[in-house]
Amino acid sequence: MPKFQIYIGIAAIALIVASCQQNSAPNASPSPTTAPTANPATEKAISYLRSQLKLSANVAIAAESAKPQPANLTDLCQTVAPTQEGFEIALVAEDTRYILQTNQDASKIEICRSEDAKPETTGKYNGAGYTLRYPADWKAIDLGLEPSGASTVIFTPSKEIDLTKDNNLEKITQKLQQSQQVYTIVARQPSDAKAIASDGSENAKDVVTIPFDAKVKGAKSGSKKEFTTAIASNNWKVQVLTLEADKFLYTVRYYQPAAKSDPNSPTAKAFDQFANSFALVSQ
Question: What does pTM read for this prediction?
Fold first, then answer.
């Protein structure tokens, strides 16, 4: 084969290879990602917020969201002219959410507003004739409404015990007592019932009665007390709120193993959460 034909063949192969490399090269304009930190404006907003709040590098700032901010003539938080588009960025630092706006290249940034970003610490429970708030990390076990109108609900932070298969008050409380677990029983009973369950205070020697206004709760009368009693061979600190309405008697009974009683623990204030938030509702 003549040399010039060899040269032509080599040149053709080189052109084909170059063409393939160009076709396989990445797109110069990749599709945008939805991740907040993928937006360059977000990184600039984080730096801006840190400098404005004078936060140290050890304080985490989380990018919660970043979305295009369309032109808006009525927007009171303007970093650019209202006819131009920008970004709205939500950042969370130290349990506070900050809403910032930037222009397209984030050369202009403004903190528009802030709001509480703390997780909910309590949950609301709507019971039979009452409402209350309880610690968000506790669970509620409703034993159902009886034909007489009586009802019982157990609240506990216990995660080690499987209580979902039981629908019996005695079995559940036995498990909680054996494991030395804190729990609260909220019960409603007809006020004309032949037998009203005892709270155990009649055998205690250290009963303390705490005065309070039952009418604030929507009740005719009531009592609030605390004492220590023996349960399953162990001493338990018990706090009880009792409210008497026209047709029903309501009780909130909180049980804390005395051996595990710590005034600084989160559960130490659980009874106050139940008692202070408890309110009767009209039937």
Answer: 0.62
